[in-house]
Amino acid sequence: MKHCIILWICFNLFFPKTHSQEEEIDFFEYWESYSDIENSLFKHFSTLAYDQLNERRDKIDKLKTAQDWLNRQSTVKQKLLEMAGPFPEKTPLNPQITEVLQRDGYRIEKVIYESLPQYYVTGALYVPDGVKKNAPAIFYACGHSLEGFRSPTYQHIIINLVKKGFVVFTIDPMGQGERYEYWGKKAGRFEVKYPDHEHSFAGAQCLISGYSTGNYFIWDVIRGIDYMLSRKEVDPNRIGMTGRSGGGNLTAYVGALDDRILATAPECYITSYEYIYRTIGPQCAEQNLYQMIAKGLDHGDFIEARAPKPILIISTTRDFFSIQGARETFQEAQNMYSTLGKPENLRMVEDDDRHSSTTKNRKAMYAFFQKELNNPGSPEDIDVEVPTIKELQVTKTGQLTTSFKTKSIYELNKDKVKDQEAARQSSRKDFDNHASEVVASAAEIAGFTAPTDFGKEIFSGRFVNPDHTMEKYLLQGSGDYKIPSLVLKPLENQKNETILYFDSAGMEHAIKQDSAITQILNEGYTIVLADLPGIGSLGPGYLKGDSYIEGVSYNQWFGAMLVGKSFVGLRAEDIIRVLHFSKNVLKPDGKVSAIAVGPLGGELLHAAAFDKRIEKVAMVESLLSYSDITSTQFYKTDYIPFTVPGALEKYDLPDLMASLFPRSITVIDPVSADGAPADRYKIDSLLEFPLGIYTKKGRNADLTTHINASKEDSATEKLIHWLRAKD
User: Acetyl xylan esterase domain: from which residue to which, for each copy (predicted)?
Assistant: First the structure.
């Protein structure tokens, strides 16, 4: 067990080995009842999700009349627009047809258009021979394939639809086909490994700014439909949309938001968030609208927002998108369709297979569109010749980034971040009002709830040597878990001050690697160490997911965001629980200072802003700003779990620093978003606001920054000097 490892390290570092003391380790075995605590983080947010989804279900159960459903539908549509948007004004598409391929019974026009100015989209329009105008048309949204719409599976479906008389338009989503945004222009290689990773790597930056990359994915499709409607071959009154997996997600989104689409058939996507949390966990960034569950929505709302328009839900029984969730969502939506008098407009087909397109399901989809788009014919799935990837290449080089001066989602979001920074700069002019608003906004956006029920601490034993003692406790966490904590006390010259010490790598690392622990103890301070959710023995947990990037599960982070919470907010709550223990149990009359090593510095800033009993704050090798992550194309993935989705709409870490005035803050060897040490220019630039406040009010010595501590005094020596200066 991790707990035993921590204890063994503590024991060997701090105490002489004797046979009797080694035997005493056994009394820690009752920790085994908390043996799943490494999954506490995701399970905590899963529990919140279940509670919120139950609240939604209770509201759904109360809908009885057609007007009840229509009233909810209006509310749902407004919420979806708010969560998926805001969408920009439409600008000229500037479409280009780069080549036309003639095939047996149809032609393929290779298309490029601008979804936004200089934000290019590659696609292909398939037109059956003989079609001149007003043919039924289908937008096909492809799933997460490396090849984008060129995948043989997707091509088989598209060409079958074309052979049945449908005009079909399809595009490459961001991060797929010819739209890789992290393509190495010189090396001709992928900088990010999978489409899901591209989606979430940029998606995390957008979420920190308060919105989902689903915004761009949806907009690309809406503009693609605009292009379809510009073509005389397309009947504007007979438009359908389908797609599998990520394409099913886009079909659900756009079908709910764009009234021009008459019939939709999302494939291998519709389920429910309850079963997503119970199985694979939330998927990549664009599939998670900002705080969607917290705002009372689930997959069923994508269907119900369209009612009573025709929908076919296509599922497989062994899909990782739970079939049980799909069945329950269908049943819920069927109640609405029946109440509206159109039960026949909602159908569901399923086949016994994994996450794949099956012959049975394809035939059902063809028949559905043939009926609903008034294009009768045979629904048989026929063998077709599929063009090669090379034949379907739209750009000259095979990538937009090397063929055009195209913008990326990273660049588009960076522009939003600049606007958010300008708004904060304006607010900062009135410091007193800004500081109070920042603290309130940080609590709301981070999902922080001030602890009121602290439970009872569980004392787990003590080791004593001639110089100091070590005590072990379990403290009640903000969820159904305990916070493992160590208390180190000097036996002589004990100061009336406790140091809370949080290492982003966990207590084990702190005791084994951080030289500061021993020296702070030797100075006479009592030290309290604790593992916070997702850290040390409380993490990282089993869930990895499709966006497990460089050892970091973005999927768990999405799981907190969906319920209106954050890792940072939860950890700030637990820091205050450790603070309460220190103030109310250890030294009721003593001072409390706090040190965070690594990116946990952000969590400590939040906790200190929420609770003034933390009198001094030290940050070692910490991030200085969330905006630094959004402004760094290749940021370090390790930092994402230490950020707050939506924060930049109202505040950043420097705002929290300023709100601590006049309390003492020291920043030692801060890091940039790429993981490299921050230089003096970056430090002064990012911390200009709090440094200016402290200087203006004559307390510049109370906010200090130190760099290259290893080359001058060590970081530990800087900490000791800081502690002594404030005694």
Answer: 105-274
